[in-house]
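Chain A, query sequence.
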Amino acid sequence: MKPEQRIALRLLARHQVSPPVDVTAIAEHHADIEYDDLPNGADAILLYESSHRSRPLIVIDRDRPETRTRFTIAHELGHIVIPWHVGEVAYHQENRFRLVSRLYQAMEAEANRFAGELLMPTEWVSQQLASANDLRGMFRKIQKARVSGQAVCFAIARCLPPGNVLVQAKA
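Chain A, predicted structure.
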């Protein structure tokens, strides 16, 4: 398990919650949250504390589906609570389709792993998988965490024994 996933588990233990996690309530312990119309397809903007702000501010695009919003809040919370995410990364529209840097990519992957573990802890997912009779049942059980189908697939893949793969095919 990666360090950012262990941080997510400590946060869950501190708040004594399990799926479906009220990620907004947890995030509000660490930051202010606002909803607005964001430009250029952005899901969220994170503003760290400054001389004008005593707490971080997470601004969420108000037109996203609930499951995407929940994951986005968890992701931005990861940037706040993962100690080595120091608030040095800025998004520039002109770099939208370019890979900004390896550090940026690593931080985004860490925030995604944090969010996945916060919303669908590995131990909980493994329990759901063990108690399901088939793939559909497995998928439904994990979706009780109020996450997207894509997030469910990542969670299942994370818990598969070595040598197994998960393939999503369109019918």
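Confidence is low (pLDDT under 50) at residues 92-98. The two ends are 34 Å apart (CA to CA).
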